[in-house]
């Protein structure tokens, strides 16, 4: 009976230790990786972040809005404030990130990866789902200030950005 009690106590302490290590992250990048997401979903230069482990909600503050190039005609735009709700392998209720495809910018509402990994990451942009190789997001990208652009919003939340310089 004593050995069973010791075993249960040992398992309980390990569970508490695992839960504490998953929620006591030191950076926003650590938070992403502890939830099975690549750290490169956020650009370099995160100024501050807050995380509520009980709800999964998080807020990230960047120094400024910026754009990060992905592949060919694709890019990601980050507002100075990014927020959402994180769960293992996914982020929902996302605001502050847009994805560019050709010349259209779509607000990203959610991001998910397959568990176990298929090597793909999916951006939910409302009208379509955009997929990228997860390897594009392994490290935080350099983020450049956005060029001077004209933004046009439609009823579907699409943004058309046109360089005017």
UniProtKB/TrEMBL annotation:
UniProt xrefs under InterPro entries: At5g01610-like, DUF538
Top-level taxon of the source organism: Eukaryota
A Pfam family it matches: DUF538
Signal peptide: 1-21
Signal as UniProt keyword: yes
Hydrolase as UniProt keyword: no
Entry keyword set: Signal
Matching PANTHER family: T31J12.3 PROTEIN-RELATED, TRANSMEMBRANE PROTEIN
Protein name: Uncharacterized protein
Protein source organism: Acorus gramineus (Dwarf sweet flag)
